[in-house]
Design goal:
Blueprint lengths: L10 H7 L21 E11 L2 H12 L4 H15 L9 E8 L4 E7 L13 E2 L2 E2 L2 H5 L10 H12 L4 H14 L1 E2 L2 H9 L1 H4 L3 H7 L11 E2 L2 H13 L2 H4 L2 H11 L18 H6 L3 E3 L2 E5 L2 E5 L6 H12 L9 H22 L10 H4 L2 H8 L40 E7 L4 E7 L52 E4 L5 E6 L5 H14 L5 H6 L3 E2 L6 E3 L1 H4 L2 H9 L3 E3 L7 E5 L5 E5 L8 E7 L2
Parallel strand pairs: 16-17
Antiparallel strand pairs: 1-11, 1-19, 1-20, 2-3, 2-12, 3-8, 4-5, 6-7, 9-10, 10-13, 11-12, 13-14, 14-18, 15-16, 18-19
Helix pairs in contact: 1-2, 2-3, 2-6, 3-6, 6-10, 14-15, 14-17, 14-18
């Protein structure tokens, strides 16, 4: 676990927040470490993230009277310090907010955008797609960051505290440092070779020329100064000021070590691109499942439509009474079908005609659900249907494979004492992003544009996810809030994991809502991920179980994935209590906290 070296977070916030069900209260001395526990129950609000310091930052804001939006931004900013390879102000994300007063869900699309000069051949040289790894660690991969604009919009619209106030815990954490854990060191080591290509990245993340040792103190004074500047000047400094100039210079002339031999292709990001960026308020996706309202993010992310379509496909199957084999079989096949439709129909709606309403219709789901048979397995790549003209059990259309999407990112979930809820997933794309640190600023730039298809997945099928000027690449991010019949929260959740985000959210929801698992156990359950591919990925808990052979007997094929996703969630309980839940093991375990633990 990560532990701040100088404890300046509110003692009450930390000591009150770290008690989980059945756990004893930790010491309350100022220098006691922040503990990582996967579940906590209590009053006054809740925060769940992958990191204890980040969750504590959110709890501090809640303790001081801030609301869920304030705490979400504080937690996200702290993750930019302790999880810099997954998120930060050099990236983007999607913010889903439940307003308790109006009992409505609102969302912000804070996805990165391509330069205004980009075209469909952004990643094509001499008629051939650039190798993926070469595109990642280059200026070409960097989109205009959306995270700072998302924070500003959320705070101005729904928050109760200033940007400077909610950035303060993260600024302290960057300045004073945190203790390196196994995960941080392992992620650094995995990126060591490419980090060495960029001297500013190597100087920051390879202190003394090597990945930081477990137990050592990691400080980021440049990021602390950057946060302080944003606190003083507002996020406009990143889109129009000195920070903006530094970003443009870094993208267009990547500061690569000439002795490394690395071809860090320049991007074409301009001051105009940054000044023109807007985080977009938009309506959420909505579908009904078991009489509950399921809300998520609409395109440019495919998360809301794909999770929603899969739930609609499963609507008429009693998963509560199904055997474990039938449950997993139906879940896998629903995900396969939904991904087939995602690949054909979902892209940035500013550029593509995305039939989101039709994709989420029960009529269309029923026309696709009848493809599923209990004694046979569909073959991938499966052809998409046409949601605008549903045909029962139609296998028409031309199939296209699912393109690759990086598996980093981070998710946080927050609730406050008034009943407001935030589910927020943010990212710099793959672990370590582009690998390029903005000199003197302390943050990595994203490689989000590699989420575009470099070339059409199948030349015979329209690909809605090719690059374009100012276009947002398709995402799989799926922060989700479920409401009851009275429009009150039941559960909110989300996960990192690239395209596996969709299946992680879907499986966790069905485990919790249908299979009756406690929330923390629904998160911990071993995962399967089918994304319209020839084989389904299984975590070890399923790959090594008898269930695998029983599913193979039907016709399923599997491959091993050591770890899929890293979810966090909150659940509303009676009497104004909240339950926060996070991973027990994945990514070193997550951190669930509440303001006032239940006795």
């Amino acid at each position: 676990m990560r532990r701040p070296v100088v404890r300046k977070l509110s003692v009450l916030a930390v000591s009150a927040a770290v008690v989980s069900v059945g756990a004893a209260a930790p010491p309350t001395a100022p220098d006691s470490p922040v503990q990582k526990v996967p579940v906590a129950v209590g009053h006054g609000g809740a925060v769940a993230s992958v990191d204890a310091d980040a969750s504590a930052a959110g709890i501090e804001v809640l303790r001081r009277g801030g609301n869920a939006v304030d705490a979400a931004v504080a937690t996200a900013a702290a993750l930019g310090v302790t999880e810099p390879y997954s998120a930060g102000i050099g990236g983007g994300g999607y913010f889903v907010y439940y307003d308790a007063k109006s009992r409505t869900v609102r969302t912000i699309d804070g996805r990165e955008t391509a330069p205004l000069t980009a075209d469909s051949e952004l990643f094509v040289e001499n008629g051939t797609a650039i190798p993926f790894a070469e595109a990642v660690s280059s200026g070409l991969s960097v989109g205009t960051p959306g995270t700072p604009a998302t924070w500003q919009q959320a705070l101005q619209k729904w928050g109760s505290r200033s940007l400077g106030s909610v950035l303060a815990p993260a600024e302290r954490l960057a300045r004073d440092g945190f203790t390196v854990d196994d995960t941080f060191r392992a992620q650094t080591a995995a990126n060591e070779t490419r980090f060495r290509y960029f001297p500013d990245t190597a100087k920051l993340f390879l202190p003394n020329g090597a990945p930081p040792a477990v137990g050592s103190t990691f400080k980021n004074p440049d990021l602390a100064r950057t946060y302080a500047e944003l606190a003083r000047k507002g996020v406009g400094a990143l889109y129009r000021g000195d920070i903006a100039e530094d970003i443009v210079d870094t993208v267009n002339k990547p500061p690569v070590d000439p002795g490394s031999g690395w071809n860090a292709r320049p991007g074409d990001l301009s001051a105009k691109d940054l000044a023109a960026y807007r985080a977009k308020f938009q309506a959420p996706t909505r579908t009904s499942y078991r009489g509950l309202g399921v809300y998520s993010i609409a395109p440019s992310s495919s998360g809301g439509t794909t999770v929603g379509e899969a739930l609609n496909i499963l609507e008429n199957t009693d998963l509560n009474k199904a055997s474990e084999v039938r449950y997993l079989h139906r879940y896998i096949e629903a995900a396969r079908i939904a991904f087939a439709d995602r690949g054909r129909w979902v892209g940035d709606p500013a550029f593509e005609d995305v039939p989101a309403k039709e994709l989420l219709s029960q009529r269309y789901a029923d026309s696709r659900a009848c493809l599923i048979k209990d004694d046979a397995v569909l073959t991938s790549p499966l052809a998409p249907g046409d949601p605008r003209d549903p045909a029962a059990c139609s296998a028409g259309g031309t199939a296209a494979p699912t393109t690759y999407e990086g598996d980093s990112t981070t998710h946080l979930t927050v609730a406050d004492r008034w009943g407001n809820v935030v589910a927020y997933t943010l990212t710099i794309e793959q672990t370590g992003g582009s690998g390029i640190t903005v000199p003197g600023r302390g943050f990595l730039l994203n490689n989000e544009l590699t989420d575009f298809s470099f070339t059409p997945a199948n030349p015979a099928v329209h690909d809605p996810n090719l690059p374009g000027p100012g276009k947002r690449p398709r995402s799989s991010i799926a922060p989700t809030i479920v409401l009851d019949r009275h429009d009150r929260p039941v559960v909110a959740l989300g996960s990192p994991g690239g395209a596996t985000i969709i299946t992680t959210v879907l499986q966790t929801l069905t485990g919790f809502l249908d299979r009756g698992l406690p929330l923390v156990d629904a998160i911990a359950a071993p995962r399967a991920s089918q994304r319209n591919q020839t084989t389904t990925e299984l975590e070890p808990g399923l790959y090594g179980s008898p269930l695998r052979a029983r599913l193979e007997a039907i016709g399923h094929g599997f491959r091993l994935n050591p770890e899929i996703g890293a979810a966090t969630a909150v659940q509303r309980l009676p009497g104004g209590k909240w339950l926060a839940a996070a991973e027990k093991v994945r990514r070193g375990g997550g951190s669930a906290m509440v303001v006032r633990p239940a006795s």
